[in-house]
Amino acid sequence: MKEKIKANQTLAELLIGILCFGVVCQIVGIFFVHDQLAFAVSLWVGIIAAMGMAIHMNYTINKVLTYDEGTAVKVTRSSYFLRYGCAMVLLGVAAVTGVTNLIATFLGIMGLKIGAYLQPFMHKLLQRWMK
């Protein structure tokens, strides 16, 4: 039970890191982007997608822990390709429609990576704040 609580805490810290990255990108985008609405919508669609991918990754990890090694590898691989495919479809729609900002969508999706790098910092910050 303790491991499950820690995993959920780690997921929460990851999601907070993704949101913080989105806020920073939005603030920086104010100064450099001409079409503010398209940038904002595209960025937050990417951020929401990154958060969804993080939640799906957490779900997959928790699910495969109950499987044998061979099945776990197959399920993990198929889940990875599902997340990768969803990101590619999202970027493809952004590229084809031309209504949204492709770079902002990509930046939002990369929030998953930045959130992972920020997670240890968020952990320390939240530990201090909770005391």
Explain this structure:
With 131 residues, the chain is an all-alpha fold. It has one domain (2-130). Helices cover 89% and strands 0% of the residues. It contains five helices and no strands. It has helices spanning 2-32, 36-64, 69-97, 102-109, 111-130. Helix 1 (2-32) packs antiparallel against helix 2 (36-64), helix 2 packs parallel to helix 4 (102-109) and helix 3 packs antiparallel against helix 4 (102-109). The longest helix is centred in the first third of the chain and has 31 residues, at 2-32. It is flat. It starts with a helix and ends with a helix. The relative contact order is 0.19.
Output the keywords:
131 residues; mainly alpha; 89% helix; single chain
Order of helices and strands: HHHHH
Shape: flat
Number of helices: 5
**Computed Rg:** 17 Å
**Number of extended strands:** 0
Give the end-to-end Cα distance, rounded to a whole number of Å: 22 Å
Percentage of residues in DSSP E strands: under 5%
Largest sheet: none
Mean pLDDT: 90
The percent of residues in helical segments reads: over 70%
Residue runs with pLDDT of under 50 for 5 or more positions: none
Number of domains: 1
Based on secondary structure, the structural category is mainly alpha
